[in-house]
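[agent] plan:
  1. take the single chain provided in the ticket
  2. run structure prediction with default settings
  3. attach structure tokens to the ticket
  4. add a short note for the reviewer (M.T.)
[agent] executing step 1
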Amino acid sequence: MKFNVPGKALQTQLQAVSKVINSKNTMGILDNFLLRVKDDVLTILGGDQEMQMTATLEIFDVDGEGAIAIGAKRLLEVVKEISNQPLTFDIDTDTGDVDLRFNNGHFNFMGLDATEYPPRAKNDPSAVEIKIPGDILAEGLETTIYGVSTEIIRPVMTGILIDIEPERMTCVSSDTRKLVKFETTKVVTGIETSFILPAKAANVLKGLIDKDEEVTVTQDSKSATFTFGTYELFTRLIKGNYPLYRRVFPKNNPFRLVVSREGLLKAVRRCALFANQASSLIKFRIRPSEIQLNSQDLDTATSAEERLDCDYEGKEMTIGLNYVHMIEMLSNLKGEDVLVELSDPARPGLFSPLEKVEGIDVVVLQMPMQVVE
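[agent] step 2 finished; step 3 output follows
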């Protein structure tokens, strides 16, 4: 088979599909892209044993059809070097010989039999179909991805819970020390379902979704397929029951603190330089118009203190928080000011943007750390 393809367009699609290919695979064939030509369309397939992704691309001057597996690393590196010009592929699917021609020369290398590649994965026929606006799904994943756990001892916590209700969608992530919730009424599906999306799939999706397009999600009990634009991502879902996240939110946090998000972020970063690296503790002494941040490391005889203006309604208190979690949260929250709702130094605090977006609610729950005065 033979076809022409714009180099830059091919590079874009190869880079997208390469995101789901592992650097080390137990099955050698998964180190390859599967290229399939049919009806003037090139389909690129790649994946691992948990995920598969396809990207399609219009091609020209097509002679014949068929499929071949080509080493992903080699093909991507070659196309990067010559992507600013049209490319011609001349492939003998019987011998595996690949001749790639460009303006000033050509490359010749070998492909593999396409039948060795695992077949394209599909959902169960009983799967439900959900349509979600691309901008909302992308924002939900971007807002919560940093909250997932990296500890595989609790697999359900290593992904994002997508909780679909008839007139609401909620994305939740947690590592048991913090919990991030993105809730929106801008998704109306008329159905009720939920699934735990692996972090790797979430990262791929949030980087590829065009926020002006709609995403179709086909989901069964074990897997989900996301279809959008010229891409289709199939992923196995994480098995298990996600904790009942709504129950962990305190029902009564009467004390309200408003502070500049950027100002607090910078203050935490500075105090973190002098905090104990093992505990990551910073003390926050909160008064009606001021927050005093304190950190120290007895091992290196260093300490820091900083004051920050705030607007606070409540009793004075000192609460200990993990600076790593604070920096992550403040870097990901949007808006100029952050609202903090508190009740007691030993109970969780709720952090959210002061300026609310209609139809969207973002809340981060932070567990406090023990403070010894």
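[agent] step 4 note for reviewer: The first strand starts at residue 2 and ends at 6.
[agent] ticket updated
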